Amino acid sequence: MTNINERNHIAHINTTQEVNIISDGLVAIPMLQLLDTNGEYLSHNPSPLTQESALKILYSMHYTRLLDERMVSAQRQGRISFYLACTGEEAAVVASTAALEPVDMIMSQYREQGALVYRGYTTAQFMNQLFSNKLDPNKGRQMPIHYGDKTLNFMTVSSPLGTQIPQAAGYAFGQKYTGEAALTICYFGEGAASEGDFHAGLNMAAVLNCPTIFFCRNNGYAISTPTAEQFAGDGIASRGIGYGVKTIRVDGNDAMAVFAATQAARKIALAESCPVLIEAMTYRLAAHSTSDDPSGYRSADEEVKWQEKDPIARLQKYCIAQSWLDLEHLDAYITQSRAEILAEVKRAEKEDYASIDDLFADVYAVLPKHLDTQKQSLQAHIKKYPEAYPKTARELL
Amino acid sequence: MAQMNLLQAINNALITAMRADNKVLVLGEDVGHFGGVFRATSHLQEEFGRERCFNTPLVEQGIIGFANGLAAQGCKPVAEIQFGDYIFPAFDQIINETAKFRYRSGGQFDCGGLTIRTPYGGGIAGGHYHSQSPEAFFAHIPGIKVVIPRNPYQAKGLLLSAIREPDPVIFFEPKRLYRAAVGDVPESDYELPLGHADIVQTGSDITLVAWGAQVEIIQEAAQRALGDGISCEVIDLQSILPWDIATVSTSVVKTGRLLINHEAPLTAGFAAEVAAEIQSQCFLSLEAPIMRVCGLDTPYPLVHEKEYMPDALKTYEAIIATMNY
Ligand SMILES: Cc1ncc(C[n+]2csc(CCOP(=O)(O)OP(=O)(O)O)c2C)c(N)n1
Ligand SMILES: [Mg+2]
């Protein structure tokens, strides 16, 4: 393998006398698949998943699906303002997180609640954020689904797309520099991979030897825009090669394959101090968000085709065939989780909102004079017109 | 005349412009077949084909860079940035390229055909990243024009002017009024001049200035102040750059008082520019300090949106304070 410096040197480039314009990718990049849609194990190698790890992934996927179903309907009932489901992509997110260590930093886009589920984010924590109440760690400042948890090494979500990609390179550089035995995984959609930040992030991670896993969920759409209108090359994977980033493409609806690929990526990234790009081929079965109706841009037939590749059913069939799964136990878990979500919805929506202090805190480490002045005049104004500001009037009277 | 909401008026302006001139092209994220996340570009692809209304990859710097090139070649791109909050990846292309294309080439090249449309502003529970009002950043840059309509009639007339006039224009659309603002709009082709303010209501005691969605807020405050016998003159700036200094200063000479209201944070917001200019033009006419009622100097919040906003009550209080100065 030639190293970067050698490649840059013109003396090492073979010459040719043919005017040979390369018109296609040299080879289409294959996709790692270990389970077929019937949950049949396809490889001759031993399975990368133990019973315990397979079941934890399966249960986390079930919980994620349930949470999404409940919260989409909570949004329809007007109980929360917005939601965004991960349906169809649970394996890509959950099984990749499962292949990491808890010390590894996760930088997500917004559709990766399954990673939090796997790491043990509680129903109560989900609801506090979704209802923007005073227990929300973001202090009610961000829209629903903008989770973040420092103790779980899950970086707070930011809506502007792609911004976390170069940040993940920098974070991983810092982990390596300070001697942490940890890396950073960065999730993003194939749409976000069009942003300039994607190119900056991959190139910098490669040149600066950052232990970063760039995990692309290629789910077919960026809101209404299909991949055919997003890029003309061989998916996102082909770009990794262009940047000198080790790359693998994986069946994103196959939890086993996602797990195996991410496990291998983690090993290489830490051992060789380098980034790895994973492109997970999957499908956004959900609407883009609760503000979206996909019937305007894709066919029901297409959705049905992908429902048949459901990632949860696939791993579940495998677990059943291995006699690993106690279906009664799973049913009880689902029933109990549903009840827990309902109870937590009821609790979280009754909590108070963050205090008016939290409107002004954290803009800077210390509240500057000019903001303190604005706060005092706002407080005086609210005291004068308490009925106009019901969320904060109570605490001031 | 037809009843339209703000979105329909924008859609109608785009159709009008595209029918009249085949150099007008519409591009942006999800603007094609789908018609944009707010549906401002509905049916354009149907009528004009993929060549004239198309989805771009998800890259704002690319959208504006591409549109700059397209405009330099002589076309008239109308580029949509899905939310004003996501215009910043394109900041370099706008500030260093769009705005300076003509000047730096001695007038040989320009991207005057470019219009950038983007929804801006709060009031929709959008939190930090679906609520910001970035107009002041762009007003700081010589070479582009900045326009903000408040109702469907203005939106159509101003957008048609923006598309046709020889300078690049950023057209900020108040998204909380997209469906809420409804009014009569001529079905014919008409233009409203850029750089002109609109006197919404005449009055004698104090001049209130705003633009976009905040105009209805100062109108509400003016109504409340009327109960105290205070007569407010309400002015909608419509264009932030260049802005109509003459209309505002004539009004302030008459009333002796000025209040400016905008959603963007107070510090270095466009109200500061208006205040500085008017105090120098009208110094001897002023009977009270110029007041600014603006967003707080915090990121745009979510649950405290009401507290953050420069609403009618805060504006009313400031009117009273100015009158009692
Ligand atoms: C910089 C920026 N531009 C535009 C948007 C609006 N937006 C939100 S999600 C989205 C599509 C993202 O698609 P993709 O990256 O494929 O992720 P997916 O939703 O499919 O998971 C767009 C355009 C944004 N959030 N940030
Ligand atoms: Mg996508």
UniProtKB/TrEMBL annotation, chain B:
Cofactor(s) needed by this chain: thiamine diphosphate
The keyword Chaperone is annotated on this UniProt entry: no
InterPro entries: THDP-binding (IPR029061), Transketo_C/PFOR_II (IPR009014), Transketolase-like_Pyr-bd (IPR005475), Transketolase_C (IPR033248)
Keywords: Oxidoreductase, Thiamine pyrophosphate
Residue ranges constituting the Transketolase-like pyrimidine-binding domain according to the UniProt record: 4-180
GO molecular function, one term: branched-chain 2-oxo acid dehydrogenase activity
Role: The branched-chain alpha-keto dehydrogenase complex catalyzes the overall conversion of alpha-keto acids to acyl-CoA and CO(2). It contains multiple copies of three enzymatic components: branched-chain alpha-keto acid decarboxylase (E1), lipoamide acyltransferase (E2) and lipoamide dehydrogenase (E3).
Source domain of life: Bacteria
Native source organism of the sequence: Opacimonas viscosa
Record-given protein name: 2-oxoisovalerate dehydrogenase subunit beta
Example GO biological process: response to nutrient
EC number: 1.2.4.4
